[in-house]
Write a structure and sequence with these properties.
One of its GO terms (molecular function) is peroxidase activity. By secondary structure, this protein is of the alpha+beta class. It has 2 domains: 33 residues; 94 residues, K homology (KH) domain (GMP Synthetase, Chain A, domain 3, 2-Layer Sandwich), CATH 3.30.300.20. It is built from 4 helices and 6 strands. The longest helix is centred in the middle third of the chain and has 23 residues. Helix content is 32%, strand content 34%.
């Protein structure tokens, strides 16, 4: 079974002074303002593609890791995942990497098994696979 999810964006103006909005069309959960400054300067009241990609990656990894822990017989009580997506403009605009940090509450698992299963989930996560040309690193720790 295949499912296609849809998001869209509208952009007005040029890259540097223009702005846009992106919409979560499939879920209808909201719209998010976009602008170039949100990609290159901190403290902007708008999002950027990298933040949206980070949200998708954190969610996807959490789902994959939860499933892998459950299949190990050690289902998680809670997983908190952050994805830091680095955007660099010094050699042309490029996403240079993603760093996932996960902190988990999991009963009955060793730190070594937690780390091993986290690495396997990172490799198997569909968003990680979609980003195969990008460096993806991981920090995994038990709470």
């Amino acid at each position: 079974m295949a499912l296609t999810s849809t998001a869209s964006a509208t952009w007005k103006g040029n890259l540097f002074q223009g702005s846009g909005v992106t919409r979560m069309d499939s879920s209808g959960l909201g719209t998010f303002d976009l602008n170039w400054k949100a990609r290159t300067e901190e403290g902007q009241a708008a999002t950027n593609p990298e933040e949206l990609l980070g949200a998708a990656h954190a969610g996807c990894f959490s789902m994959a890791f939860s499933n892998a822990l459950d299949q190990n017989g050690t289902p998680p009580t809670q997983l908190d995942t952050q994805a830091e997506v680095t955007f660099d403009t010094s050699d042309g605009p490029t996403i240079t990497g993603v760093h996932l940090t996960v902190r988990g509450q999991v009963e009955g698992i060793s730190a070594e098994d937690f780390q091993r299963i986290a690495e396997e989930a990172k490799a198997g996560c569909p968003v990680s696979k979609a980003l195969a040309g990008t460096s993806i690193t991981l920090t995994a720790e038990l709470a």
